[in-house]
């Protein structure tokens, strides 16, 4: 049986947006979890340590000459990372019907209106380039993968494109804390967007769809469809996780309404979908144009009102960060 993760360790790392670094905390005697973390590392069974130290993945990433110590840290880091991701999805399931799910129950958010999709207005927060600030606390947008920075570029793009006043977002249930101590993270990544062949999309008489099969990474495939409906064209795209990852990774789901008459986006939103093992098997057999309301959907953001096609392309790419197929679909070469 795996060694249980102490509550203090889980809370410390689950509320920290920085990449997990157990080696640093275990070596820092001033760390508030120094004793608990080292006790946890020592409690990992020797048999498990011996087995893990021979694994190719560990051999490729090991650091230092103390192999046993490095193996214990590696085991703990893998287990903690997976548990944080699993409990985040569990929290969303438990609170699916709550009026004020985590983190909205805390007192500093009592003056914030939460809608029925669990979204809040960005206009109620101050953005410092990394965090959403309110009443002395810092918050992040709900992560769309197990990586804590998976919505970092999406939020920056919303502000960069001037869409904050018309956008609502879902706050992450774990990633928040006092403003003065909650890390402000900054990452570099160039993200460019371009219009698709909008003339072709505007003239569609029937659905245009496809599926990108992923050769590596967290997802198994990505479905998309452009579906004409009277004077609108709806775009839906979903990145579906691998069966083995479904308890830790949600799908990423994007919906857009395009108005050919004005050449603008009228509405778009991004969400995550939580699947059970049985549901993910059914999802694999079905293209997105036939899935309906399969799985539990939790919105991450919603933007209403006229939005340019260029801004839409940028937000689509930032929402599906690390998905090379979506990046390529919306990508263009930067002109020198």
Structure description:
The protein is α+β, with helices and mostly antiparallel strands. Helices cover 31% and strands 24% of the residues. The protein contains 11 helices and 12 strands. It has helices at residues 7-14, 22-27, 34-43, 46-52, 56-61, 67-94, 152-160, 198-202, 277-284, 309-319, 324-330; strands at residues 120-121, 126-127, 132-134, 137-141, 167-169, 171-178, 208-213, 219-229, 232-241, 251-259, 264-274, 296-307. Strands 1-5-12-11-10-9-8-7 form an 8-stranded antiparallel beta sheet, with helices on both faces. The protein has a 4-stranded antiparallel beta sheet with strand order 2-3-4-6. α4 packs across α6 and α7 runs antiparallel to α10. The longest helix has 28 residues, at 67-94. It is globular, with a radius of gyration of 21 Å. The model is unreliable at 332-336 (pLDDT under 50).
Secondary-structure topology with pairs:
Blueprint: H1 7-14, H2 22-27, H3 34-43, H4 46-52, H5 56-61, H6 67-94, E1 120-121, E2 126-127, E3 132-134, E4 137-141, H7 152-160, E5 167-169, E6 171-178, H8 198-202, E7 208-213, E8 219-229, E9 232-241, E10 251-259, E11 264-274, H9 277-284, E12 296-307, H10 309-319, H11 324-330
Antiparallel strand pairs: 1-5, 2-3, 3-4, 4-6, 5-12, 7-8, 8-9, 9-10, 10-11, 11-12
